[in-house]
Amino acid sequence: MHRRITSHVEAEPHSSGPQPDGDPEPNDNGNPEGEENHQSDNEEDPHNNNATPPPSPVRRSHRERRKAISDDYITYMSEDVDDIGKVEDPTSYKESIKSLNSSKWQIAMEDELKSMSSNDVWDLVEVPNDAKRVGCKWVYKTKYDPKGNIERFKARLVAKGFTQREGIDYNETFFPVSSKDSFRIVMALVAHFDLELHQMDVKMTFLNGDLNEDVYMTQPEGFVVEGKEYLACRLKKSIYGLKQASRQWYLKFDKIIRTFGFTENVKDNCIYLKFKGSRFTILVLYVDDILLACSDKDMLHETKNFLSSNFDMKDLGEASYVLGIEIYRDRSKGVLGLSQKAYFEQVLKKFNMHKCSGSPAPVVKGDKFGTFQCPRNQIETDQMKSVPYASVVGSIIPRISNGKAGTSPCCSRAVQVAARGDQEDLQIVIDHKFVINTATPSLLTQGSMGSSMPRNASLNLSVHVH
């Protein structure tokens, strides 16, 4: 009698029932069963000393695996949240010369090249045989004021940094940026000590950084020098788009500002502090935006003059609009506020909700949400899915609590609840009932109110644990 050897090396008797005349039945592998058993006996017979031992079972961990994000959260990503309701900008040079604002874009590009020429950014040279050219392109941006009106047209020549080679065209790229938490702390100090708060803008920011590597860039499209098409721009200073541009600007600014007596904050590398007796100045750097909070006007003017003597600066006076946040002050009452009313109005207009009435509170005691609010039929389900509820939530989340300094914390709880849910139908209902009809319209009123910081408020840090 034949024996079949299993994967656990246990012998089991083979069925000895009668077989029909002719060829033996094939098994699952398509071979006659008898031949397979015979081969198995020869290769895996336990009495055969030459038999190959079975492989050891794979050891698997029995530890419970936990997800990085719990199941009751749904992540949304909104596209171009800063440009909601705004005019689309050209994406290439050809689009700019064909657009309705072609003459304005042409002037903007000429201004950009004049600035680069005055800063001696590059020289036209022949490219060595062992060197590789880095491409460039025009980037267009329409600038708006706090009320959403067009302020100016900006054209920027940007290098195609993705064609750079590490170790040849660049080395280090790290560049610190001031956090939004630091911004809120500085605003609280300004309100508490009634400090002077001014803003300055650095023109052609990255052109201030010194370039240590030899980088050759193609001539800008639309402005190639006639008769010198074969030449390339040998960069002497870093420009936008280069991988090391941000770092070179930060190193240059850090080196110069320290010579004026400023010391860098240990926790936030883009916060600087200078003491002069009982007077002090706080400087906040966010790429090309500079905030100056000072306890003395003379010290404030000294700092402005020093910055203007080392960089091409634009003095914007008292700070009123920073990083998309509107700053309003009433120094007679000792109140400083942060608002993003213009942005929230754009969100409401995009989703056709700008005529909705605001709610004094997005969540009130007794509100209940559950599966009993789910659509009762397919018609209601299709009707709710036709509205981009998730896009509304994704547009609000970055602005209410974290992200852009969180100017509407009163609505954070409502939106956070709307951004979680275990069931798809329940999620749609929560988004619709909870955010669209209640939280979002209230942002029109809450957004205009923003966050207020009174002068007499305590500076003690309070931590609330749920």
UniProtKB/TrEMBL annotation:
Specify residue ranges for compositional bias: Basic and acidic residues: 35-47
Coiled-coil region(s):
none
* Chain residue ranges for the region called Disordered: 1-65, 445-466
Where is each Reverse transcriptase Ty1/copia-type domain found?
A: 119-364
Q: Which InterPro entries match?
A: DNA/RNA_pol_sf (IPR043502), RVT_2 (IPR013103)
Q: Which domain of life is it from?
A: Eukaryota
Listed SUPFAM superfamilies: DNA/RNA polymerases
Designated name of the protein:
Reverse transcriptase Ty1/copia-type domain-containing protein
Species classification: Eukaryota, Viridiplantae, Streptophyta, Embryophyta, Tracheophyta
